[in-house]
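Dear U.,

For the methods section draft, I wanted the exact inputs and outputs in one place so we can describe them consistently. I've listed the two proteins in the order they'll appear in the manuscript figures. Please don't edit the token lines directly; just add comments below if something needs changing.

First protein:
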Amino acid sequence: MPVQVVYAENTEQQQAVTKLSDLLSSTQTISGHFSQLTLDSTGTQLQEASGQMVLQRPGLLRWHTDPPLEQLLVSNGEKVWLYDPDLMQVTVQKMDQRLTHTPALLLSGDVSKISENFTITYTEGGPVIDFILTPTAKDTLFDTLRLSFRNGVINDMQLLDAVGQRTNILFMDVQVNEPIDAAQFVFEAPAGVDVIEDGL
């Protein structure tokens, strides 16, 4: 009986990986706006933000959060820059291939890497498919991540961490498979900015 249970779980995982792979593989570029809401475990609002994002497979991302919480995250597929204009500081890291520290990169990432580093399940109802991703490693920013697609296009994302804090990200005005200027994924530190190389 345990063998049958494991087999069933593996089959469900493979079905989820296949569905997610099909959705991600059909989308080479995504651009749009987002709104982000962070709540604590009691549902009290901690933070609200909005911004713009563009991404291109594989591994290219530009994620700009508007003031007053302005930040810019840029990935060129090898390195990730996180720029904080208020602090006049940019942190540069190698891109974590597990994608557990930069969840938005999941949308432009290598599906084989995703299936290696997450347990994946899904539910489907009408035009909506929800995927629940649970990291297999412990040193992650979140305990679970939900990706929700509507009519084959990413609609929203929800992250839940170990203390019950929940971050909801809603995507709006989403355009898929439109040409994107390669300069979007290049970061040049402004003059006078402190550059911190983390683990390079």
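Second protein (the one for the lower panel):
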Amino acid sequence: MEPNSLRTKVPAFLSDLGKATLRGIRKCPRCGTYNGTRGLSCKNKTCGTIFRYGARKQPSVEAVKIITGSDLQVYSVRQRDRGPDYRCFVELGVSETTIQTVDGTLITQLSSGRCYVPACLKAATQGVVENQCQHIKLAVNCQAEATPLTLKSSVLNAVQASPETKQTIWQLATEPTGPLVQRITKNILVVKCKASQKHSLGYLHTSFVQKISAKSLPERRFFCSCQTLKSQKSNASKDEAVQRCIHFFACICAFASDETLAQEFSDFLNFDSSGLKEVIVPQLGCHSESTVSACESTASKPKKRKKEEVSGCSQLLDEAQVTLSFQDWLASVTERIHQTMHYQFDGKPEPLVFHIPQSFFDALQQRISIGSAKKRLPNSTTAFVRKDALPLGTFSKYTWHITNILQVKQILDTPEMPLEITRSFIQNRDGTYELFKCPKVEVESIAETYGRIEKQPVLRPLELKTFLKVGNTSPDQKEPTPFIIEWIPDILPQSKIGELRIKFEYGHHRNGHVAEYQEQRPPLDQPLELAPLTTITFP
């Protein structure tokens, strides 16, 4: 009777649906409730299991505010009349106007804007347009902000580009005018550049577009506003394709510095047929295959040593197993340089002297020659006779002068101890100085630091810094300051031990300005008044 009663309840137009299936629904793995396959979470309120995270709704990309690191308000605005990938810059400011009234003079602040589209800029200079253009109106109502991208120095060192390109990118990244690369949309980015007549604000747009079609291979295109439109549309020669602009390498370094972006733009990072050399995301700061293997071996040694110590603490230490790797020794050299760059002393320290085996210097010389096809020859070779100190005899001294701060960092950087080009200090009450470590600040994060400036001011003590002097560090400097590496082989000929000398200079910064060193003499403590001694007699 029950089946017949159920059949009577089914409407006539649903009688031919056939057997019921579970298509379009699925069981919750936690509570067993049936949910739709498109659901993001379980509809059972007591369960609340999240199946997948939905894509965030993208904010309007009509206008995006750029992080400038200052009071300058710059916006990237879409040009509606040209297409979705055409954007321009708009600068907003505030101007003061005086109004004479019966009660006196009133000072009123009026918002003003300047659009850098050639047509709008020409019309504004000629006074043709009285009202604001559509781009300025979009910038005034802007609610979105650009996403700053991080640039890691280890990635910049690993990119196969000329030293001049790396130096220029590093200089742009360290300038206090916002992050080097900012993301506006999925394909469009804003990159800092040198201010010119064409790019007076010091920013330009770049885009990475990948077109996939069934008939042909995926097509990857890169556009930069520093290039002319004619060269973008025409078929450029292979030589022009190989020579990528500096803004392309800046974006590539930013992509490789983040794992998520590296996966998203992996086709551009590993694409070689368009003239881009293969850029590999560096592992542990290593720069070549040989260096990677060395890093892996040194990284695995501490684990092995730890197991041995746990399992056999009562066993005697095997001297043959005690080893010092090249990277461990190089980390000690970097730490020694850090200790020498103290604010309390002048910027001309005594040379740092190390006695190391020949194999260590061979590895160091290989780092000095990174970026060139051949070994870099020393700047000078000197033969001298030592008579007044041991060891006596005739020796040869090889000297290298490094005038690029990026190359110095590339030589001395290790995964355990990256080279710090600047060091911060605080002054104590007694006149001495102490190293200052700012909490929760990523060493290589450039964009994140500038992103915090516009949100809330960070309270910091008096900024006292020391910086490594390499190259031209002042505008009126004629000769670059070198970082000197000297090598005297066979100081101990039987042991194959040589003498390594490192000479360098460092400067002092006080609140962002170069300060000359002044000898600090802490005040002497007041002398203690001692009671007169008394004679004690014993019976």
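Candidate sentences for the figure legend, describing the second protein: The radius of gyration is 33 Å. Residues 149-270 form one domain.

Thanks,
Y.
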